[in-house]
Amino acid sequence: MTESQTEKYGFLIDMDGVLYRGADLLPGAGEFVRELRVREIPFRFLTNNSQRTRRDVIAKLARMGIEAEEEHVFTSAMATARFLAEQKPDGTAFVIGEGGLLTALHQHGYAVVDHDPDYVVVGEGRTFNLELVETAVRMIMGGAKLIATNLDPNCPTANGSLRPGCGAMVAMLEIATGVKAFSVGKPSPVMMRAARKELGLSTDETTMIGDTMETDILGGVQLGFHTVLVLSGGTRREDLQKYAYRPGVVVQNLADFSDLMNRHDWGNPWQHTSAFAPLPVAVG
Ligand SMILES: [Mg+2]
Fold this sequence. Notes:
Layout: E1 10-13, E2 20-21, E3 24-25, H1 29-38, E4 43-47, H2 54-63, E5 73-75, H3 76-87, E6 92-96, H4 99-107, E7 111-112, E8 119-122, H5 130-141, E9 145-148, E10 154-156, E11 162-164, H6 166-177, E12 182-183, H7 189-199, E13 206-210, H8 213-223, E14 226-230, E15 249-251, H9 254-263
Helix pairs in contact: 3-4, 3-7, 5-6
The structure holds magnesium ion.
């Protein structure tokens, strides 16, 4: 065993645009996760999508050939439920969202109500309609706090187009009420820090891998994590010029990142800056 292998490190891995896109597995995703498991390198899948439960996520990954356990999944729904349980134990919530969010809230001692809630909680889903919005607006004006699982403006769909994300729905409530939502998902430190604690690692031992500058990379940079941007999702290399922050490393996909990791036999990649030398670390 080389010295570097004794160094602790682990990964927070975004899913959409990193592991898969729609129903298609992205290059190197299966192999990367398998390698982490075999080598017992800690990791969590970190997703802002609050629609699915942990079990749903594992089932989706299994269909694509990625084997993982429920403990490997950390969603914005879980982060939101945990956060609310800390802020106000045994509270009540009016929910605009789906199974993942409802399950997480129940698991953290929350009652889902349609009358006089402590919080209005908004996640992704297809249940959104004007009747719900009207009810939510009334509750917020009556003093309920507005919570968003995330503020992603849109989400990629299987056919390559976009659908409105949680952020778009939250914006409607914000404008109607004049109340700003508190968002828990990436890049919020609430979710990023909770995920890092799940790994059992320190800031410097944690690497965030993602495809979105506004969430994955921004959150990672703000928390002081190492960051890896994959170009297999929504970001193109030429986009990087417009951001005031940059990822530590840019790779095409997880297959490329695995090649890098292989060069140092999967030792802590940040101990070997030379491992990343051939890569365009800075752009523009
Ligand atoms: Mg993504």
